[in-house]
Amino acid sequence: MFERTRKQLTIFFGSILGVVIILITAFFYLILQETLRHNENQKLEDLKNKMAQQWEHRIEEQIKGKRPMEREAKNVEWIFLLSDELIVWVSPDGRTQISPSRYTEMSNQLLIWAQRNEKKSEHGERFYVEVGGERQTFVVSSQILNDAGGVYWMAIDISANAALLDTIRLILLISTFVLLSLAIWLAYFFAGKAMVPIKKSYYRQVEFTTNASHELRTPLSVIHSSVELLEECKDTLPEFEQHVLDSLQDEVKRMIRLVESLLTLARSDSKSSQMKLDNVDLVQVSHQMYQAIQPLALKKGVHLQLDLPDNDHGVNFIVGNVDQIKQLLYILLDNAIKYTSPGGKVTISYRASHRGRTTLQIADTGIGIPKDELARIFERFYRVDKARSRELGGAGLGLSIAADILNNHRAYIHVTSEEGNGSIFEIEFHA
């Protein structure tokens, strides 16, 4: 129970820490990516400005007569370019000039676009070139020069930025994985720390319940013995005192059942005793409990039926504790009979499920359980109809004990019920 709660707390806190770590990592990566892209756009803008200034300078020289017009397209000076920048320029008269560059493949690609007059985004777009098994990354663009200066295609090598971004992405992924692992461990550690006071309070409560139950058993036994002695001379008592004696006997029996139930739950919670496991024959145990509880059914006027299988094929054998299985059957049958009106029917049957497991079914034609109450019927001290449960001597602990027995046997229970049309309890055991 505590380990399951600790795991749930670990998942909860680990998820919160994980989301925070992922958000911080993603935010850092996006900021870095945006910074690098801004840097690339700035370099592209700078190159556009340098090309525009170079063209304006040549126009001014032409106006002053320092540079003849016919030589304009032949002697472009590319000294303003950086080593990672390259340009292909097509002048208005159709002449093409290529800046000297070490990026041969990219220069050829710019030339192809220029020959096709294939325009590129003015804001830049990425283009990849494979050279010697390595990928080079460029940001490319095309621009029209003012004052009839023609069109030029430009490219800037941003492979270093791309490699940096890839490296940082890998580092962030590894760091995120490490931090998530650390966050899960910390969540598990602190969940354990948070469980310490809860465990102490829980075990104190279990110890108190166990001690109180033991202490109450002796005086209740004395009271019960005294009431039984008074029963022997009941006929000599006045009618009112006989009625008081009957009420007292009923309350003492109810208190004894309540104390025994509390003691059973306390023992189950404390795990103080190891459960002895044997091969249990469900047919034999069902028949024994059928015979044991038959008088109660007859007294209530309820028909109790045991449906035996045509052949067992070994499906009726399970590994479990025979005493606990008997107690489980008694609780379910006792509840079924209590909440079934006279003339009703309670049926015990079992079969092999489609998964090869043994399924025990107890069905009744009783008052049923409201759908909104089904999820809570196994809670301790919970009663669907509190007034009727108290009238019938119930304390709301029977199904809680049944749930503990099912948990000890790693069995599953499925309850279907319709108010006014009875209930079906299906228990699936591990074979």
Automatic annotation (TrEMBL):
Q: Can you name the source organism? A: Paenibacillus ferrarius
Q: Where in the cell is it found?
A: Cell membrane
Mention one GO molecular function: phosphorelay sensor kinase activity
Q: Which residues form the Histidine kinase domain?
A: 211-431
| Enzyme class, UniProt record, top EC level | transferase
Gene3D superfamilies in the cross-refs: 1.10.287.130, Histidine kinase-like ATPase, C-terminal domain
Q: Identify the SMART domains for this entry.
A: HATPase_c, HisKA
Kindly list the GO CC terms recorded for this protein. Answer: plasma membrane
Q: Which GO terms fall under biological process for this protein?
A: cellular response to phosphate starvation
Main localisation: membrane
Instruction: Give the superkingdom in one word.
Output: Bacteria
Catalytic activity line of the entry? ATP + protein L-histidine = ADP + protein N-phospho-L-histidine
Q: What is this protein called?
A: histidine kinase
Enzyme Commission numbers on file: 2.7.13.3
What's a Pfam family in this record? HATPase_c
Per the record, membrane topology reads: Multi-pass membrane protein
* UniProt xrefs under PANTHER family: PHOSPHATE REGULON SENSOR PROTEIN PHOR (PTHR45453)
Print the keywords alphabetically.
ATP-binding, Kinase, Membrane, Nucleotide-binding, Phosphoprotein, Transferase, Transmembrane, Transmembrane helix, Two-component regulatory system
